[in-house]
């Protein structure tokens, strides 16, 4: 299916947000996620079912100074 991930259209095969994070090799513990502009808590990612055209935002902390 096609998803819009961080503003870019990408193909993905994952059925849930948690599975998508695994597919994209993200570390689940240090992320903030949004599904169609709604914040999704870490404990709810496995029940967040994805559909073609959904917008996903994945934010991770960055180090710097």
Q: Would you summarize the structure shown here?
A:
This protein has one helix and five strands; from the N terminus they run ββαβββ. It has 65 residues and is mainly β.
State the strand order across the main sheet: 2-1-5-3-4
Helix content: 10-25%
The CATH C-level name is Alpha Beta
The main β sheet shows up as: 5 strands, mixed
Would you tell me which CATH topology applies? Ubiquitin-like (UB roll)
Residues in β-strands, percent: 25-35%
The shape, in one word, is globular
What's the SSE pattern? EEHEEE
What is the tally of helical segments? 1
Distance between the termini: 38 Å
Number of domains: 1
CATH architecture assignment:
Roll
Q: Residue-averaged pLDDT, rounded?
A: 93
According to DSSP, the number of beta strands is 5
What is the name of the CATH superfamily?
A: Beta-grasp domain
Question: Which stretches are poorly predicted, pLDDT < 50 over at least 5 residues?
Answer: none
């Amino acid at each position: 299916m096609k998803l819009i991930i961080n503003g870019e259209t990408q193909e993905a095969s994952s059925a849930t947000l948690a599975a998508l994070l695994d597919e994209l090799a993200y570390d689940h513990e240090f992320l903030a996620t949004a599904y169609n502009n709604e914040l999704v808590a870490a404990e709810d990612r496995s029940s967040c079912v994805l559909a073609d055209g959904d917008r996903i935002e994945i934010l991770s902390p960055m180090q710097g100074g």
